[in-house]
Task: structure prediction
Amino acid sequence: MENFLRQLMGKKIDVSCGANATVRGDVVEIKDGILYLRDEDERLVYVAVEKIAIVWECKDTVIRPGFVG
Result:
């Protein structure tokens, strides 16, 4: 799992660790069984790699101001 997560360095991902535990952030580092994510408020989130059940990449949708015609 750590090798897989290293391939996602710098990307925004969602990580699920069970039924009610999901976090989103940019992959900063993977070290000693810990995944380091930076959330949208620039806080570091630490996730135990062994607890991760599901990982998926996030698509950043760009919202452009203006009218939709």
